[in-house]
Amino acid sequence: MRHIIKGICGVLIAMPALAAADEDYSAVEERIRALAPQTKSIAISETPVEGLLMVQIGGEIVYATADGKYLLQGRLMDLETREDLTEAAKTEVRRGVLESVDQSKQITFAPEAPKYDLMVFTDIDCGYCRKLHAQMAEYNEQGIAIHYMAFPRAGVGSPSYNKAVSVWCASNPQDAMTQAKMGNDPEPAQCVNPIAEQYQLGKELGVTGTPSLVTAEGRMIPGYVPPEQLRQRLDQLNGVSAAE
User: Fold this and answer.
1) 211: cis peptide before it, omega within 30°?
2) Hey, CA dihedral for 232, 214, 153, 39, is it positive or negative?
3) What's the pTM value of the predicted model, to 2 decimals?
4) Which one of 61, 64, 82, 117 has the fewest beta carbons within 10 angstroms of its own beta carbon?
């Protein structure tokens, strides 16, 4: 007898039948560490699929067979509930990571009593990031607070990275951010800054492009979303009806 696992992309993987579940996953961890020797954190847990384990490698989620023979990358879906189990797991990972974020190092644009707080990973030179910032007043009117985190896509030491440093080190970071988003190069400035740290955090959370929006619950919303549509999406994620 064999178990067949069907992935979200329709990939079929046949595996030998497994014996009774064994909670000692040292063999699996050993093989994962051999593939990713620089990984600091590996967490292994069971999934609803018999013989399939979820492996958290830093901020990434992959799957492995309990015998440590096979590794699967992709999304695991519950076809009955249509729940994306992989995204749910990543949300929990992000929520845990968010607890370590120093909010004092963010550049914040917020209404007096925000309904929603979003961490937004941004690149100074990103076109859609600039479009988002140009509508900041509308986001705030929708009750959405924007807490900027730096994510220079070209990496540490790039021109975008240096601009981010200058913005965060400016005497008025909010004004410097607005000017930079309008295409004006910020006045060069240096200080002890969080840019490299925030960039690394973004990678750990799975940010691959900008803007990337992360809710307080750890949900990821990739890309630009207009203010009114973003408020509607946030309401839906939180089970808020249009009448409320």
Assistant:
1) yes
2) negative
3) 0.74
4) 82
- Distance CA(129)–CA(106), nearest Å, equals 16
Active site residues: 123, 126, 129, 153
Q: For 16-69, what is each residue's pLDDT tens digit?
A: 333 334 467 888 888 888 887 877 778 888 888 888 998 888 778 889 988 888
Six token digits for residue 174: 């909010």
Residues 136 and 17 in one domain: no
Residue 98 lies in a domain: no
Give me the CATH number covering residue 68.
Answer: 3.10.450.70
Q: Which domain holds residue 58?
A: 2-88
Are 180 and 160 a contacting pair, CB within 8 Å? no
Q: How far apart are CA 8 and CA 82, in angstroms?
A: 11
> How many CB atoms neighbour CB 28 within 10 A?
20
Same domain, residue pair 80 and 120? no
Closest Cα to residue 128, out of 211, 229, 231, 214? Answer: 211
Q: Would you state the structure tokens that stand for residue 90, as one six-digit string?
A: 């990543």
**Residues found in the chain:** 244
78-82, 156-160, 198-202: least confidently modelled range: 78-82
